[in-house]
């Protein structure tokens, strides 16, 4: 019995030894006073959410919580962000409210001054009579943040001077009616936030390139620039895109990945992507810059391929399948006169035939044959109308020639003319005895 009690006593003493250090850990209350904050929201850069240098200065935001060892806990009700008025576009002022959706947690390393806070926030933008919500904005705020603003260690403790920041490739969709569509257009795309105590002039890798944080590689932060793309509406079933890294990109860009119509992303490292045999209808192309740490925000482009009407092959006319090759021009060939020589007794008649051929492809129009002859020797009708002659076909004009009472030799000169096929000449000789 004594042995059993002794074992129980030892066990209780050991258990107390294990529990004692845990019970000894104490929560230290703290309040971080955020007296400066800056935002990049899509097309809006450098928006001062809190400014300590105004007269009077903006009231600070506060995070009141407990630091237990390295663990940071801030109840959601203890994140207080005063309403802020800001000009969201020329002449349009909005009131911005921010609150926490849930408790904020994180870590603080007193040895390095590194502060990390995980937060889910909700921003309400009141503009032109509309209340527009952006939620949840899930952020990891860190003193080791690089973009768009550099973090800064809290070297003198969690309530001392320092900067935490975070970035995003896109905010959640803006909800609400009225003017909320304008807010969505202004805040869409990559952006970020920096909040500080005691630091007003926020640094970036462009203003402070020697900062050790700037040597840390993170995914690209800027959406690529599209240098060329198909028209927004086209009947062509192919498309070619060219692109380059985004303006002001501070991170290395090793390549790109392209996506067509929400398909699987494919490498397109050359900076050019071509698609062929695309279907009619709407299409969307997107591209992201990549490096060893991942991919950045995307640039998207939409266009429409309209119905392509069938066309006849080059060199033909008409509408498929009734395609025809255009005819060549009409052209009169040399005249064939029969007989070329004829002997007549005085007062007698003969018929001379003049054959006219169209050696072209198109129809010869308005063809007629006229003759010039010595009136003192022969009598003959001056002109004979032939009319139209199809391509490759011929017609004959007949001339009745009557010899007069005088002997001699008459030369008959024939000329065939057309409205579109030129003219040709021929002749015949009539001897009168």
Outline the structure in words.
7% of the residues lie in helices and 50% in strands. The protein is mainly beta. A hairpin with a 2-residue loop joins strand 2 (36-41) and strand 3 (44-50). The protein is built from two helices and 31 strands. The strands form seven sheets. It has a six-stranded antiparallel β-barrel. The chain has a five-stranded mixed β-sheet with strand order 14-20-19-16-17, with no helix packed on it. A five-stranded mixed β-sheet has the order 24-31-30-26-28, with no helix packed on it. The protein has helices spanning 2-24, 180-187, and strands at residues 27-34, 36-41, 44-50, 61-68, 71-74, 79-89, 92-100, 104-109, 114-127, 130-142, 162-168, 191-197, 225-228, 233-234, 239-244, 255-260, 266-267, 272-275, 281-291, 294-305, 317-319, 322-324, 336-338, 341-344, 349-357, 364-372, 378-379, 383-389, 394-403, 408-417, 423-432. The N and C termini lie far apart (174 Å). It is rod-shaped, with a radius of gyration of 48 Å. The protein folds into three domains: 28-215; 225-305, Immunoglobulin-like; 336-432, Immunoglobulins (Immunoglobulin-like, Sandwich), CATH 2.60.40. Residues 1-23 have low confidence and may be disordered. The longest helix has 23 residues, at 2-24.
> What's the average pLDDT?
89
Give unreliable regions as ranges. Answer: 1-23
Major sheet: arrangement of strands:
4-5-8-9-7-6
- How many separate helices? 2
Q: What is the share of helical residues?
A: under 10%
Principal-axis shape:
rod-shaped
For the termini, the CA-CA separation is 174 Å
Determine Rg (CA atoms, Å). Answer: 48 Å
**Total number of beta strands:** 31
- Largest beta-sheet details: 6 strands, antiparallel, barrel
Derived structural class: mainly beta
User: How many individual domains?
Assistant: 3
Q: Give the percentage of residues in beta strands.
A: over 45%
């Amino acid at each position: 019995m004594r042995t059993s009690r002794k074992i129980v006593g030892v066990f209780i003493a050991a258990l107390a030894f294990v529990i004692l250090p845990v019970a000894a850990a104490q929560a230290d209350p703290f309040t971080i006073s955020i007296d400066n904050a800056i935002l990049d929201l899509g097309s809006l850069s450098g928006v001062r959410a809190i400014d300590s240098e105004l007269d009077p200065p903006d009231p600070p935001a506060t995070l009141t919580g407990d630091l237990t060892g390295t663990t940071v806990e801030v109840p959601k009700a203890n994140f207080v962000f005063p309403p802020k008025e800001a000009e969201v576009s020329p002449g349009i002022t909005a009131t911005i409210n921010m609150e926490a959706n849930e408790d904020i947690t994180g870590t603080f390393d007193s040895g390095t001054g590194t502060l990390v806070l995980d937060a889910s926030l909700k921003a309400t933008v009141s503009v032109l009579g509309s209340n527009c919500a952006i939620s949840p904005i899930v952020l990891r705020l860190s003193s080791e943040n690089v973009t768009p603003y550099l973090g800064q260690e809290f070297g003198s403790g969690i309530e001392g001077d320092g900067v935490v920041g975070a970035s995003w490739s896109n905010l959640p969709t803006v909800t609400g009616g009225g003017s909320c569509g304008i807010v969505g257009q202004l805040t869409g795309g990559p952006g970020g936030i920096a909040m500080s105590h005691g630091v007003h002039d926020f640094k970036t890798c462009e203003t402070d390139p020697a900062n050790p944080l700037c040597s840390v590689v993170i995914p690209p932060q800027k959406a690529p620039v599209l240098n060329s793309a198909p028209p927004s509406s086209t009947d062509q079933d192919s498309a070619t895109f060219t692109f380059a890294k985004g303006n002001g990109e501070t991170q290395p860009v090793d390549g790109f990945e392209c996506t067509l119509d929400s398909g699987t992303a494919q490498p397109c490292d050359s900076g050019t992507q071509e698609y062929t045999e695309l279907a009619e209808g709407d299409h969307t192309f997107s591209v992201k810059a990549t490096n060893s740490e991942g991919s950045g925000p995307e640039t998207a482009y939409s266009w429409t391929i309209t119905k392509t009407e069938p066309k006849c092959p080059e060199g033909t006319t008409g509408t498929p399948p009734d395609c025809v090759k255009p005819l060549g021009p009409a052209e009169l060939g040399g005249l064939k006169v029969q007989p070329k020589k004829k002997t007549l007794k005085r007062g007698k008649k003969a018929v001379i035939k003049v054959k006219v051929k169209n050696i072209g492809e198109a129809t010869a129009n308005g063809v007629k044959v006229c003759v010039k002859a010595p009136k003192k020797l022969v009598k003959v009708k001056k002109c004979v109308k032939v009319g139209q002659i199809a391509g490759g076909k011929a017609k004959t004009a007949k001339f009745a020639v009557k010899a007069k009472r005088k002997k001699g030799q008459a030369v008959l000169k024939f000329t065939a003319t057309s409205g579109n096929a030129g003219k040709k000449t021929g002749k015949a000789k009539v001897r009168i005895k």
